[in-house]
Design a protein that fits this description.
heterodimer; A: 278 residues; mainly alpha; MetI-like fold; 0% strand; B: MetI-like fold; two-stranded antiparallel sheet; 2 strands; transmembrane (chain B); transmembrane helix (chain B)
């Protein structure tokens, strides 16, 4: 049956799809191989495999763009933002999933509509807010700000997971004398771990990859800037060294790559559900 | 939009509730207050700045440290007299008219292809996801390296004997905007296709089999049978892609062309950025922000209308 389905008429489709797949793969291959080459080698034979595997380009990229502190800054911002996102979204989802009141339903509407507000629309007013709070050029503002951008999606995903938890679980715990906080901690949180994992993975990607706000609000100071802000500094107006640029780019992809390879199935599901839920 | 509404039948007093009101209350204390911090956070950091756009757009504000004064609609008047603004409108229009339909149509067909599980579909799925993982600066660096005068594209052209067609793609006013569109498409088709494939996976298989028994070719099955089933979902994804492209293009423009050469690749969203952070014309910048917001709203409604479920 399966082979029957893909008759000759599928040939153009196969060709087109694989052509696109190659278009996706070539730049990645180009990046990986160029990271081990010099400018001359890259220009003379862009697609040939590297002749030697030295880490010189990586070292130069690391040093000239201060990628070490940048990776650390990105990690700090990402981890604290994730923690705050969960700290805000889990209780909120818990409240909205259990409640039947009108107030709660209005709140849920607000979060659902939040998808329609694109994150990057209000860059300048957000910059003003950071200046007004005295948090301009700090990582702290990003840690406070990023969870807000993640709130609608995180709350909606968690509410959907929490609605599947049978109320009898809570009733039983109540009879045993559990407090509301106890119910949240010992029943709801453990039981919607898959939802929490989805939220963490989705937001890990968004936070780690965030560029424009980090650029404006944290700024270009090498001690504070994140990896996404540091990366484009490797591109210079006068003669970019592509070996170093590509090596630096590869370095920024490593954490995402590791997470993707380890959690491929789960990550794909998270990304898809992130969009599906919208 | 498939929004989750929590409108449930309110518990009626006459309902078969075995517990007394006091017992019910004890069983389910109201916890709605726990949602307040998240809501406040969201209002302060997201909704507040959105509202501020409209306020700032009505101010004369020639720089961060300058004093402000009420401008009324002056910023909008300045805007509509500015050829750069109209250039940006045109560029954004071209970007939308090309990128959005091509992306949605190609992604749907690709998603359908992958959902049929042809040989090698696992590898394809893996590759399609890759652009979804890479940050915008990294994607821009990929394109920067590929399209620079000594880059991959020109190298490939020379290799096949078309060296004369080589160009400084990002520095040529005729091609700069199309390079940005190509970046959107390169990254967007794959990721969108995975979304469609996931949705098509959940369409009952009998549907496709019934179509095959009827002798419907894949082309017909794809557009006449599967498409109507997931039409609304396609519409939702189209709306999101529209918003991402409309508001997000500032990043690609900033990283690749800075709007140049000669404003040939300035989009509306980049104009907001440029006027605010490069030219310090803050009222003007946020007036463009208001226009962008309205364009987004009108676009959303239009897309929603054209994808309305028709059965």
């Amino acid at each position: 049956m399966a082979t029957m389905k893909f008759r000759k008429s599928w040939l153009p489709a196969h060709i087109l799809v694989w052509a696109y797949a190659v278009l996706l793969a070539i730049p990645l291959y180009y990046f990986l191989s160029s990271a081990f080459k010099s400018n001359e080698e890259i220009f003379s034979s862009p697609l040939s495999p590297p002749t030697s595997f030295g880490f010189g380009n990586f070292r130069t990229a690391f040093e000239s763009a201060d990628l070490g502190p940048a990776i650390l800054n990105s990690a700090i911002v990402t981890v604290f933002s994730l923690a705050l996102t969960l700290g805000l979204a889990i209780p909120a989802a818990f409240a909205l999933a259990r409640s039947r009141g009108r107030v709660a339903s209005v709140m849920e509407k607000v979060f659902s509509l939040g998808f329609l507000i694109p994150t990057f629309a209000a860059l300048f007013p957000t910059f003003l807010l950071s200046a007004a709070t005295g948090l301009f050029h700090t990582r702290l503002f990003m840690v406070l700000f990023l969870p807000a951008t993640a709130m609608p999606l995180s709350v909606v995903i968690l509410v959907q997971f929490m609605r599947t938890i049978p109320p009898e679980m809570e009733e039983a715990a109540r009879i045993d004398g559990a407090s509301t906080f106890g119910v949240l901690r010992h029943i709801y949180t453990p039981m919607c771990m898959p939802g929490i994992a989805t939220v963490v993975l989705l937001n890990f990607l968004t936070f780690w990859n965030e560029y424009l706000y980090s650029l404006i609000i944290i700024g270009p100071d090498p001690d504070l800037r994140t990896i996404q802000v540091a990366l484009p500094t490797l591109k210079s107006q006068i003669g970019t060294d592509y070996g170093i640029l590509t090596a630096g780019t590869v370095l920024t992809l490593v954490p995402v790559w590791i997470v993707y390879t380890v959690l491929q199935k789960r990550m794909q599901r998270a990304l898809v559900s992130g969009a599906v839920k919208m | 939009m498939t929004m989750t509404s929590s409108v449930r039948p309110a518990p009626q007093s006459g309902q078969a509730a075995p517990l007394s009101p006091a017992g019910r209350k004890q069983r389910k204390p109201s916890t709605t207050v726990l949602a307040v911090p998240a809501l406040v956070w969201y209002l302060v950091f997201m909704v507040g700045p959105m509202v501020a756009i409209f306020v700032i757009a009505a101010l004369h504000w020639p720089g961060m440290l300058q004093s402000t004064s009420f401008a009324g609609l002056d910023n909008f008047r300045a805007l509509f007299d500015d050829p750069v603004f109209w250039q940006a409108v045109r560029n954004t229009g071209v970007q939308m008219v090309i990128a959005l339909p091509v992306m949605i149509v190609c992604a749907y067909m690709l998603g359908y292809y992958v959902a049929q599980k042809p040989p090698g579909h696992k590898i394809i799925r893996y590759l399609l996801f890759v652009p979804g993982l890479i940050s915008t600066p990294a994607k821009a660096m990929v394109f920067y390296a590929a399209l620079s005068p000594d880059g991959l594209a020109n190298g490939a052209l020379k290799a096949v004997g078309l060296g004369s067609a080589a160009d400084a793609w990002l520095a040529n006013p005729d091609t700069a905007l199309y390079c940005l569109i190509a970046l959107d498409l390169w990254a967007g088709i794959g990721f969108t296709a995975v979304l469609f494939a996931a949705r098509l996976d959940s369409v009952p298989e009998e549907l496709g089999e019934a179509a095959q028994l009827d002798g419907a070719g894949h082309w017909r099955a794809m557009w006449r049978i599967h498409f109507p089933v997931i039409k609304e979902y396609v519409g939702v994804v189209a709306m999101l892609q529209f918003l991402w492209t409309l508001f997000g293009s500032a990043q690609q423009v900033l990283l690749l062309t800075q709007g140049g050469p000669a404003n040939s690749s300035t989009t509306l969203s980049f104009l907001v950025y440029e006027k605010a952070f490069m030219e310090s014309d803050l009222g003007y910048s946020q007036a463009v922000g208001v226009v962008l917001f309205l364009v987004g709203l009108v676009g959303l409604l239009a897309i929603r209308r054209s994808f309305r479920q028709s059965y």
